[in-house]
Amino acid sequence: MNFTIAVIIILAAFEHIIIGLFPPLIQYIAKDLNVNIASLGFVSAANILVTSLSSIYWGYLSGKYPQKRMMIAGTLIWSVSIFLTSFSSSYFQIMFFQVITGFGLGCITSIGLRILTDFIPNQKRGLILSFWGMAQGFGGIAGSILASLTIANYSWRWPFEIVGFFGLFVIICFLFIQEPIKGPIESTPKELLKNTHYDYRLETRHIKFLILKGSNVYLFMQTFLMNIATGSLIWIPTLYTFKIMQQGYSMGTAVIVSGYLYAIFQIGGIASFYFGHLGDKFQRKTFRGRAYFTAFFVCITMPCYIALFFIPMSNLSLPNDQNNEITILVSILRQIFINPWITLLFVLSLFASAAQSANSPNWMALLTDVNLPEHRGITFSIANLFNSLGRTIGNAAVGILLGILSTRFNEPYSYIYTLSILQIFLIPSAFCYLKMSKNNVIDIKFVLKTLKERAGKV
Fold this sequence. Notes:
The protein has helices at residues 2-33, 37-62, 67-85, 91-119, 125-153, 158-174, 206-212, 214-230, 236-246, 251-264, 272-285, 289-310, 325-338, 340-357, 359-369, 376-405, 413-422, 426-456. By secondary structure, the chain is mostly helical. It has a single domain, classed as Growth Hormone, Chain: A. The longest helix is centred in the N-terminal third of the chain and has 32 residues, at 2-33. The protein is globular, with a radius of gyration of 22 Å. The chain crosses the membrane at residues 7-30, 36-58, 70-88, 94-116, 128-152, 158-177, 217-240, 260-279, 291-312, 332-354, 392-409, 415-434.
């Protein structure tokens, strides 16, 4: 079981590795394919949108066919298509391969998350699901670093080939994972521990009920609004690139440094597992506890990120040699300790990324708690649709706002104002948690009562 959980958590990183590849490479791809940067922004948005739409289809399939088989099929699709992306010679080809990649990636959130929740006891949901959230966060970081480092010595195509090969390795790992058995892991109420067969299945008539269920509605809206804000954060490396170039460094050096800084400044995301554990504790005290706890941290995420955008990268002292990545990394780490501006950026990034990390494990735990086991696959798929729609709108909004603001402001200021405006969506996102807390109590009690009744029939 532990091996299965580990493989599924590792898989969670790949969707965000692929998303993280694009921003650092976008200028190089645009130049090579002779297209403008805004057009490539639509490629990234299309990938995210297709991923979300296809996840509903994968979630439906997971209720009818073996989940392990579906995961292998989906992973085969995205790993082959992401590899073929490296051979793109036109805008149409890169768009086509990224759309197919998005279709394959749709299996990760819908089926992968369902497999994971079927293996996790509800007392530890926040803790274990925090590793899923951390994997997604570090996946984005890994994608950014991979792109930044390989572009210095290779072409933009190389990162896509590497990720494609890793996808094939994951397929081999899938051959050894367990097919989950729904029911026994639901250790509250305790009677379900005796239940070795859980034959309840999703029915088409349940879908409307799940979409309109009180807790689900607010959780769908919460992830939609939050991802408009956080979905735009994949453009932070681009912001850093312009800030570093403003200090007189070449684009090649700036791209490498921005990739490193983006990774270092996300270290606060490690706090995700601790906040997931705290969410479990608050939830044991009251069914409203997790919602209130997460709302607080979502709120304080906004001022931390806005401050992070506005702080300048003054007095940078770095080697202007893009072929010496290790020397550049050592210099960056040294700057954190001797340059007050970089020190301040580092501290703010810790608070921002840590506060943001509280959302993912607790949101997933709440969505799991308020839905019956047979409903979770399709519910996660619908939630992922709202999640990805938010990210798509966030990415599209970056392009639109940049187009407007760049007529009055130069880089990096146009990026600073654009990303800051989009963080405002974190406020209504936090409010959704407060509104759903009442429905949360009713829906969790209903789930526990239903499971107890079913256990008594065994």
